[in-house]
Design brief:
- 2 copies of one chain form a homodimer.
- In chain A, strands 1-2-3-5-4-6-7-8-9 form a 9-stranded mixed beta sheet, sandwiched between helices.
- Chain A starts with a strand and ends with a helix.
- By secondary structure, chain A is α/β, with parallel strands linked by helices.
- The relative contact order of chain A is 0.14.
- Chain A is built from 10 helices and 9 strands.
- In chain A, strand 1 and strand 2 form a beta hairpin.
- In chain A, helix 2 runs parallel beside helix 10.
- Chain A has a single domain, classed as Alpha/Beta hydrolase fold, catalytic domain (Rossmann fold, 3-Layer(aba) Sandwich), CATH 3.40.50.
- At the A-B interface, strand 1 and helix 10 of A face strand 1 and helix 10 of B.
- Chains A, B: GO terms for molecular function: carboxylic ester hydrolase activity; S-formylglutathione hydrolase activity.
- Chains A, B: Keywords: Hydrolase, Serine esterase.
- Chains A, B: It is an enzyme of class 3 (hydrolase).
- Chains A, B: Serine hydrolase involved in the detoxification of formaldehyde.
Chain lengths: 280, 280
């Protein structure tokens, strides 16, 4: 076994387990969580990846979103990776929005980040192989992806780049054009260097001009989200999807914020969206 | 206004707010949280008190139990007080199970605790008066009470002492005979002095021999709870209820622990139990 189980809890008839493993791609020890629904006792179940936002780890969504209830109802396995490489040997920054906890689901090309920061490779290649080998009844032929904020950016970009792998996609309050907003510009400059075509491949709004998926992307964002106008800018992505024929259901939710109370409110609808798409 | 709102989030169509206020009874600043369901916009709704366990504050249950979904479904307001007086002027102990975070829902008589530690008076008298005066559409004629671990002890003892106030009662993994287990014995000795009749009034198992409520008390406890045999001892309370005619539905839940994943799994059933009792 290449994974070490560090915690396990029974939850809604299924099981939440947290694992450590040595990541070759990221060159550090990584931790991730898997919620296995009760249906996995009887056979393979679809796999839904949740990518978290800035500062988060596996714990935020597993502790605060209530996802286990809907996952158990629909028979979906949910995997929550960390948001960056971690540890003493990994570069970091004093700010919360760069370095550890802020991997932005990309492959860094600039020092000091390039050695460890390859979260897109980790999420799409190394971790799925580990899960396929070590987590029982994970049906890797039926995968979906979703996330929050920076993780919404990750989910949409990875879905658009790998539509045959991640057949369904949704997001809560996603950063959909990092190249145009402060969070993304700061991170891209540090990880990727000055503005270049490299930035476009990690920008959902630019990507969707080049390639569209056959799935309908589901997005919920709160109207009281304090990052709405500065960092999220829904209209840019909505316009690009409409202009390029990407099916999108972007819902503005009156009075909700950027927090897990908002996410918990609509979590069941997102899981139902993925369940419908993955069980077809 | 005697309360200061420190945070507020929209959640499941309702609102979660956190308040600070100056407690005269406890002689310190206290913080509590109120989940107001959407139905409170149209008129009074029942009030359900949740008492947390050792080390917890209002946040654990509001962040991790998913209670908002069921509270919004049934139209129940839920209030989560803190577990003890807090602050620099309040005595504390290095251990997690004594002092701040470990109020045990009693009135201390021993130094240095007696000045501040009066959590039963705070919960049953001062805080309800504040809520009645300042929280809109809290129907104080329809109150229930529940809690976890030390808070399960608090909920059952306060229900048995005030059955006309708290018409419904339930608990997750409660300490039902603190006078007989290490957590309770340590706390009672510190707060109440050597074993005496004073201990009995804060012990659910002793109380139920003297007085029974007309409600059916609902309890869920996990069979994999690491505190089961040493601190919780279900059989002592079950036997006392049976012998004395207290209606009790005590359910052992296979494989579940002492954690909020367990609580979240059965939270909706507990809220439905209270809703049924309070809406009669």
């Amino acid at each position: 076994m290449k994974t070490t189980e560090v915690s396990s809890w029974k939850s809604f008839g299924g099981n939440l387990s947290v694992y450590d493993h040595e990541s070759e791609v990221l060159d550090c020890t990584m931790r991730f969580a898997v919620y296995t629904p009760p249906q996995a006792a009887d056979g393979p179940v679809p796999v839904l990846w949740y990518l978290s936002g800035l500062t988060c780890s596996w714990a935020n969504v597993m502790e605060k979103s209530g996802l286990q209830r809907a996952a158990a109802e629909h028979g979906i396995m949910i995997i929550a990776p960390d948001t960056s490489p971690r540890g003493e040997g990994v570069p970091d920054d004093e700010a919360y929005d760069l370095g550890q906890g802020a991997g932005f689901y990309l492959t860094a090309t600039q020092a000091p980040w390039a050695k460890h920061f390859k979260m897109d490779q980790y999420i799409t290649d190394e971790l799925p192989k580990l899960v396929a080998a070590e987590i029982k009844n994970a049906d890797m032929g039926k995968q979906g992806i979703f996330g929050h904020s920076m993780g919404g950016h990750g989910a949409i970009t990875l879905h658009l780049k790998h539509p045959e792998t991640y057949k369904t996609c949704s997001a809560f309050s996603p950063i959909t054009s990092p190249a145009r907003v402060p969070w993304g510009q700061k991170a891209f400059k540090a990880y990727l260097g000055p503005v270049s075509v490299a930035w476009e491949q990690y920008d959902s709004t630019e990507l969707v001009k080049e390639r569209q998926s056959r799935a309908r992307i589901l997005v919920d964002t709160g109207t009281a989200d304090t990052f709405l106008e500065k960092e999220l800018k829904p209209e840019i992505f909505i316009d690009a999807c409409m202009a390029n024929g990407q099916a999108l259901d972007y819902r503005m939710r009156e009075g909700y914020g950027h927090d897990y109370y908002f996410i918990a409110t609509f979590m069941a609808e997102h899981i139902a969206h993925h369940a419908a798409g993955l069980k077809e």
